[in-house]
């Protein structure tokens, strides 16, 4: 087990900064997800952790010790690659035994360890096969087995589930979480799938353009996104962003007062999540542009002078595209962002008390 | 209907091609088995009436054929070992390491390959004389290496570049050293490419004539190609029967090797064709 820390970590390829000055630290036993769109630098970050890339600047620490110059084989880590990177000419048993063989573990001990891991991952029947004779899910388990056999202090996983079909993916997701709970090792998990990051991690680092956007618990990142990028990246359907104005402690969207707020006067960006929108009689007038019945609920997209929001409605919602509707959002759940920098404004919103919004506007 | 006709047409065309290529070989084998009088018969027959192995016996017992054969085998084997050894390491470097001038080196290698080898004969000969290697087997090994190596490097580099780097990286993380990852993981993956490179080199060295003619002038180091020619072909006479028997025996090693390793050869050339 080991804690991990990055200090001012930067990676440059030629003149391009792929990773820019990342600082973060997770305690021993954490499940850290590096989350971001493709090309954001998360894989490079993981490869630096593994020792496959040298940082251009900054330090990487395991348990407080700088490991920048420690070669991959001596970092006491295991890695599962997105492509699995199994050794094609070796059998499943030889693949799993390889890390032990390279560390001079005796044959009998090796066989016992392989048997133990194979039993855990239900690979017993496949030990004599070669990787190309296995399905994607089986290959993935072999890759995991090769990582598990040695009991390293840190596990690195580079989008290990992205090549699996949806059913298998959700199964492996819960198996990985159970595995993490059981062995208690520090895990670093790279993904572009926010659902994976949210459901599996103890810590999430959202990365975009090589820069750490936010670091916190999954709940933190969801409830208090640090900026528009994080807010828009996390949550399905994506958060809607509307132009708003703050005037005298009131937040207005499309001329309607939607909340009281402590933010300073001026233009702001208002973020609204679908589950916080209710469609009813009062509120901002809109037209239904799109209805998606997902089964247990219906996603209704509304358009109007304010822009576009999506609402989570009941499964039996009868709205059809073209209908007129009005919507309101729970004021205390609105997110305010600086309209230029996109940074979160730490001013809570609250429902407007007393007069109805319409009267309020006349007063203002 | 039309499809069947086209298929017949293609079959006919293919068999025609095979006949064209195979006919001289069949003639060669047939002639080597005919007694002298049948060879010069005014009514030539394809198949010998009284097959005989006397020409083979003559070649092996009364001429220097066995010596030439041994020389050729030595030269081709040595060239193959040297070329494959150097090319595997060089290609690994060109395919996997990042350093200044890597692409320049790769292009220079290709440029060397494009140079017609004829222009190298005289300089090489003079160098061999200076080095005291003229008329030695080593001189031929060096000469063949000089033009087999660029191609081998290029072929193997393409082959290795097509092998995902991630499996080597996985080996590094699993505790292998750089060379350990090379031997444990890359080499087995590159084996088809290595075998086809070795075959290519061996065939080239085995069949080479021009350099052997110029660089070697002593009978005890001559390879088969020039040895057989000087022995059996003169201005006055060509020993057809012996020549054909010699040709058959020269082809046998290649045919045996190719029969066993044909699969690898096709694979290797395929890889070379994908990426230039």
Automatic annotation (TrEMBL), chain A:
Q: Which PROSITE patterns match?
A: ABC_TRANSPORTER_1 (PS00211), ABC_TRANSPORTER_2 (PS50893)
Q: Name one GO biological process term.
A: carbohydrate transport
Q: What protein am I looking at?
A: ABC-type sugar transport system ATPase subunit
What PANTHER family does its record include? ABC TRANSPORTER ATP-BINDING PROTEIN, MALTODEXTRIN IMPORT ATP-BINDING PROTEIN MSMX
Instruction: List, for all copies, the residue spans of the domain called ABC transporter.
Output: 4-234
| SMART domains assigned | AAA
Hey, what's the signal peptide range on this chain? none
For molecular function, the Gene Ontology terms on record are: ABC-type transporter activity; ATP binding; ATP hydrolysis activity
Superkingdom classification of source:
Bacteria
Which family does the UniProt entry place this protein in?
Answer: Belongs to the ABC transporter superfamily.
Query: What is one term from the GO cellular component aspect held by the record?
Result: ATP-binding cassette (ABC) transporter complex, substrate-binding subunit-containing
Q: Which UniProt keywords apply?
A: ATP-binding, Nucleotide-binding, Sugar transport, Transport
UniProtKB/TrEMBL annotation, chain B:
* Domain of life per record: Bacteria
One GO term under biological process is: transmembrane transport
PROSITE patterns per UniProt:
ABC_TM1
Is Membrane there in the keyword field?
Answer: yes
Q: Where in the cell is it found?
A: Cell membrane
| Membrane topology designation | Multi-pass membrane protein
Q: Which UniProt keywords apply?
A: Cell membrane, Membrane, Transmembrane, Transmembrane helix, Transport
- Cell cycle found in the keyword field: no
Q: Which spans are transmembrane here? A: 12-30, 68-92, 104-126, 132-156, 185-206, 240-261
Q: Which Gene3D superfamilies match?
A: MetI-like (1.10.3720.10)
Q: Which InterPro entries match?
A: BP-dep_ABC_trans_perm, MetI-like, MetI-like_sf
Query: Where is it found, in Gene Ontology cellular component terms?
Result: plasma membrane
Q: What is its main location?
A: membrane
Every copy of the ABC transmembrane type-1 domain together lies at: 69-261
Q: Which family does it belong to?
A: Belongs to the binding-protein-dependent transport system permease family.
Know the name of this protein?
A: ABC-type glycerol-3-phosphate transport system permease component
